[in-house]
């Protein structure tokens, strides 16, 4: 009898997406993780011009050279990472980049260190490689930040990699420089890989972002244009990996997607070259929304760390599934914490990528519930 591969049976469909399918479409959505802003006008024009000028054919596997050149400049300027265009692969969003890293480097029986909580795609990619997830607790007393000493305790001779995500989805936590640097140094000492997902890098409040790739060559840096430039549907991301890693990644990319969206690549090029006012304005608005949602949750008696980045809060609640269910019935979509890791047993995730007015209204509804 025809049946699916055993590796796919271990993986469940996204609990976040399920919420969107079954919930009242008129509800206030505090579940979805994408900016509610439109793509900036200069980026729209660049993509329209690309269509008019017939940028509709296959691109080089690694992406257009001029886009990769701009990514190299960006990494040097913003992240203190010295690289070259041969190390850059433009991907179909950050999701493909994560999948590529897993498929290229994780083997059956490998142990992959993963902050708990973390984005639900990471353990799925690990399971598809028949590797083992080893959770590293992000503790409430550390404001849900991953600490280097907690990582060191989990390292064994089977440790192949660690996946970092700072700012973090689902908590909004931003790791401190000493922990980023310390984990990069552990990767050198114990010879494992650091996969650093920096998709929320630009969405940060009153703090500086640090990249582990500035401290070690054992790092693969992932980023993209979905969050900072509201280009979620355009699906353009990128990987920076040294020569010893790059060819293996390219093999997965070639046989998975061949190349990223040609029109989207031209939009990404303009995003890097053009003015950054839209990014700055969006971050200011997110900060106002963060302050509102944290204030209201605390007034309702919930324990909630104040996130320093991304656009999520991760409050503690007594019964997350009951909370999510009652909130949905009342007209507010939230997400239970458990899909993000065992630490989510007492948490829910709320996104403040919705308007200030809608967030205020949602908080009024939840207060009544």
Describe the protein in words:
By secondary structure, this protein is an alpha/beta fold. It is built from 13 helices and twelve strands. The chain has two domains: 6-39 and 277-368, Aspartate Aminotransferase, domain 1 (Alpha-Beta Complex), CATH 3.90.1150.10; 41-273, Aspartate Aminotransferase, domain 2 (3-Layer(aba) Sandwich), CATH 3.40.640. The chain has helices spanning 6-9, 15-22, 41-52, 65-79, 93-105, 121-128, 148-154, 177-190, 243-256, 262-273, 277-299, 320-330, 356-368, and strands at 28-29, 88-91, 111-116, 132-137, 159-165, 193-197, 219-224, 237-240, 312-313, 332-333, 335-336, 348-351. Helix 8 links the parallel strand 5 (159-165) and strand 6. Helix 3 packs across helix 10 (262-273) and helix 5 packs across helix 9 (243-256). The longest helix has 23 residues, at 277-299. The radius of gyration is 20 Å and the shape is globular. The mean pLDDT is 95. One of its GO terms (molecular function) is transaminase activity. Residues 26-364 form the Aminotransferase class I/classII large domain. It is an enzyme of class 2 (transferase).
């Amino acid at each position: 009898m025809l049946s699916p591969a055993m590796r796919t049976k271990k993986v469940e469909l996204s609990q976040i997406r399920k919420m969107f399918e079954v919930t009242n479409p008129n509800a206030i959505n505090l579940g979805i993780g994408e900016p509610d802003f439109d793509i900036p006008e200069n980026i729209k024009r660049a993509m329209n011009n690309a269509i008019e000028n017939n940028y509709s054919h296959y691109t080089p596997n690694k992406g257009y050279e001029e886009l990769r050149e701009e990514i190299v400049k960006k990494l040097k300027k913003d992240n203190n990472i010295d690289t070259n265009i041969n190390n850059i692969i433009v991907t179909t969003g950050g999701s493909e980049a994560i999948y590529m890293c897993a498929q290229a480097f994780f083997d059956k029986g490998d142990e992959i260190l993963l902050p708990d909580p973390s984005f639900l795609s990471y353990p799925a990619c690990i399971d598809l490689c028949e590797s083992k997830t080893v959770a590293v607790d992000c503790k409430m007393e550390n404001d849900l930040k991953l600490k280097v000493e907690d990582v060191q305790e989990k390292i064994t001779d089977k440790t192949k990699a660690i996946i970092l995500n700072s700012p973090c989805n689902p908590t909004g936590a931003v790791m401190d420089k000493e922990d980023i640097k310390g984990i990069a140094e552990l990767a050198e000492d114990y010879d494992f890989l650091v996969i650093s997902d920096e998709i929320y890098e630009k969405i940060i409040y009153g703090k500086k972002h640090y990249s582990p790739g500035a401290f070690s060559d054992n790092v693969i840096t992932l980023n993209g244009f979905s969050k900072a430039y509201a280009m979620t549907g355009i699906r353009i991301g990128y990987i920076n990996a040294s020569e010893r890693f790059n060819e293996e990644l390219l093999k997965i990319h070639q046989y998975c997607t061949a190349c990223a969206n040609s029109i989207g690549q031209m939009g990404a090029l303009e995003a890097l070259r053009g003015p950054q006012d839209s990014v700055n304005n969006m971050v200011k608005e997110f900060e106002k929304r963060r302050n509102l949602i944290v204030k209201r949750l605390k007034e309702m008696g919930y324990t909630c760390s104040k996130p320093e980045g991304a656009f999520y809060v991760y409050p503690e609640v007594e019964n997350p599934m009951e909370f999510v269910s009652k909130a949905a019935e009342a007209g507010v979509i939230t997400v239970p914490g458990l899909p993000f890791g065992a630490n989510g047993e007492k948490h829910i995730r709320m996104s403040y990528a919705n308007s200030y007015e809608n967030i205020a209204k949602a908080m009024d509804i939840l207060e009544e519930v």
